[in-house]
User: What shape does this take?
Amino acid sequence: MTKCLILSMEEWAEKKNKKKIVVEKINLKIGEFTCVEPISLINTFNAAVLGSWLDSSQITIETIPFEGKCSKCDRLYFPKKENGYKSPCCNFNLEEIISGRELKIASIDFKEK
Amino acid sequence: MHLPISDKIELNILHQNSHQAEKNKVKFNNYNLLCLNIMSSPGAGKTRLLEITLEDLSKKFYSAVLEGDMTTNLDAARLEKLNIPVVPITTGRACHLDANMVSGGLKLLEKKINPDLLDILLVENVGNLVCPAEFEIGEHFKVALLSITEGEDKPLKYPIMFREADLILITKVDLLPHLNFDINELKSNIASTNPKADVIEISSITKSGFDLWQDWISKKILKFKNI
Assistant: This one.
């Protein structure tokens, strides 16, 4: 995932003229229902970019809650592992996921040299 | 230095992989070749499943395998004995196949056989219940294996894998009489995580369930090829 993030940043920077910019913050939106542990992503990113053009950049992560919709009564709810992800209102299985699958670079804060 | 600028891009971190996966899928479609992504934890029985499956399947459909492994070609060597085209993909330290690796594997497969002649490509992913679930490879269907020795709770502990799967094969069910294992609890946990998935119980020892699994594959191939 860290590699994918860095490759995405490289691709973005190519369009901006990498040598003329300094990235200050990479603002991510990471859903709770993904295979990404935010602190691990930050640590591996920091280690991977040491000495590179992204060395001075910081990652911020906005965690997007895992939210489902009860397929019986349409109520939104926060699925919990302890409850088998079922809806607390009708005890229905998790069918529709409203949010929590996000793996996004929301925005990039940078300065021109 | 100028004032900071905020570039709001809202870009999927995995977009490069997704883009390559789409390209792979277009290639599979052009070859009229159905691709299954076979995933599980290490030791759930993916390679043995393929050995038994391909013995029969390759009599009816032209089949090939891309065999993902971290460090060896041991599994690929097992499948090559079935006299079908097999391409090993050694991922090194990576714990999953990504779309670029599969694209590379497909190029090697094209050197072995004209994929126009094939009906189905089975991609055995690296044994791992986490990362393979997030990385599309261009597959038409995802198949997840879960052996009963892993415990009833795994669909809840690794929900992305089981949520993403189109078919879940519960493997090693011949061991049920010897284990304190509640298969109904497992099925309930699967249904909680992914109510839409097909579920088949299977044993590579007794061969139970293989008729259902072979039938599932055959139907998918025939539907894909509009036969």
